[in-house]
Amino acid sequence: MSGPSGGGLDRRRFLTTAALGGATIVGASALGGLDADAAFAAPMPSLDPAIAKSAFAEGRITAINGTVLEVAGSYGDHHLIQLTNATSVWKLRPTTAEAIRVGDGLYARGVDMPDGTVAADAVWVNIVNLHCTIRGIAKDRLHLAHGDHDHAVVGRIVPETTTASYVGGALTSDLSRVRIGQSAQILGAWRPEDDSVDIARVTVGH
């Protein structure tokens, strides 16, 4: 998946203390932004000289053991993601670890620990970044076509969460300018139970 770079610069937080056993990171790292756009940003050098590079992991969550997520990667690899008291969690909106479920998809950024875990600075759960064509508009959803084969996707409009981005304007909850036939970028959260997408932001006209 590809997407916009940058964003989140004013929300950078810094690694202040790490328990090298992988148990805790106090504060957060200087590894990048923590908002949804940051999941698709190009990796940046760490701002903390004690950290050589960021660690990344992606896949499906197969088990949750306390604060450790077992993740099966898309290419046959496996990861252990250690959540800490400073891990930023996104699942359609900023949330907490309690929102994470077995079966969810995950993209995580953090620091490799000596015990083989990745101490997570930020975790994006079920995040998707789709380039689509709008095929239909209903009160609570957008009907989308995605990919070379126009795969049908239902985009769910979530009250008090879904926003639109139009050329030259600030983010708005007003979706009245979205039109059938427009190309759109959908940033949102995949719903494993029905393969639809909860829309965080729809960008049109850019």
Could you write a compact summary of the structure shown?
It contains no helices and 15 strands. It has strands at residues 15-18, 25-27, 55-65, 68-72, 78-82, 88-91, 93-95, 105-112, 118-125, 127-137, 141-146, 151-157, 163-165, 183-191, 196-204. A hairpin with a 5-residue loop joins strand 4 and strand 5.
Give a description of the structure.
The protein has 206 residues and is mostly beta strands. Helix content is 0%, strand content 47%. It contains no helices and 15 strands. The strands form 3 sheets. It has a 5-stranded mixed beta barrel with strand order 3-4-5-9-8. Strands 10-11-12-15-14 form a 5-stranded mixed barrel. Strand 11 and strand 12 form a beta hairpin. The protein starts with 14 loop residues before the first strand and ends with a strand. 33% of the residues are buried. Mean pLDDT is 80; it is low at 1-29.
Largest sheet: 5 strands, mixed, barrel
Provide the residue-averaged pLDDT: 80
Share of helical residues: under 10%
Strand content: over 45%
Q: What is the global morphology?
A: elongated
Number of strands: 15
Annotation field: number of helices: 0
Main-sheet strand order equals 3-4-5-9-8
Sheet/helix structural class = mainly beta
Question: What is the alpha-carbon Rg in Å?
Answer: 18 Å
Report the uncertain regions: 1-29
Distance between the termini: 19 Å
- Order of helices and strands, N to C? EEEEEEEEEEEEEEE
